[in-house]
């Protein structure tokens, strides 16, 4: 497992310390990297891209609320500004190579362009059937994601790799 407890403080059963959080496995990360390119819709691809970034950068859901892409990012370098960190710090720099288990993040340049255009990294997400997110429509909105949206995003991300919301709980 990676040191990226992505469900920490997003799903009620996981509230608490890091020992009660769920971290993605290598298998989850590999699948998210693959689906970041191959998923059937832009919304599902973005969900996987965020899950990949969360894992490689060891970020929690809270970090993506208000996050932006830094102008210093390149096609081979992920560089983000986090609006806030878990300890209350603001404007925190994080970065990593734009490559993972499956190779170069071919989606990174497109994500940078979209995020730069809208002014924030992750747009809001809507799920038509929250209890079974893959049975309905998953769509992206025109505003920045909030904490509630991050809960939905991770429910979808884990559902995409076969971990249902009931299994997540």
What helical percentage do the residues reach?
A: 25-40%
What is the CA-CA span between the terminal residues? 18 Å
Structural class, please?
Answer: alpha+beta
Low-confidence stretches: 1-17
Major beta-sheet overview: 3 strands, antiparallel
Mean pLDDT: 85
- Major β-sheet strand ordering: 1-2-3
CA-atom Rg in angstroms? 15 Å
Which sequence of SSEs, written as H and E, runs from N to C? HHHEEEEEHEEHH
What does the overall shape look like? globular
- What fraction of the residues are assigned to beta strands by DSSP? 15-25%
The total beta strand count reads 7
Q: How many helical stretches?
A: 6
What does this 3D model show about the protein?
The chain has 169 residues and is of the alpha+beta class. Helices cover 37% and strands 20% of the residues. The chain is built from six helices and seven strands, in the order H-H-H-E-E-E-E-E-H-E-E-H-H. It has helices spanning 26-38, 42-57, 61-64, 108-118, 147-160, 165-168, and strands at residues 68-69, 77-84, 90-97, 99-100, 103-104, 123-127, 138-144. The strands form three sheets. It has a three-stranded antiparallel β-sheet with strand order 1-2-3. A hairpin with a 5-residue loop joins strand 2 (77-84) and strand 3. Helix 1 (26-38) packs antiparallel against helix 2 (42-57) and helix 2 packs across helix 5. The longest helix is centred in the first third of the chain and has 16 residues, at 42-57. It is globular, with a radius of gyration of 15 Å. Mean pLDDT is 85; it is low at 1-17.
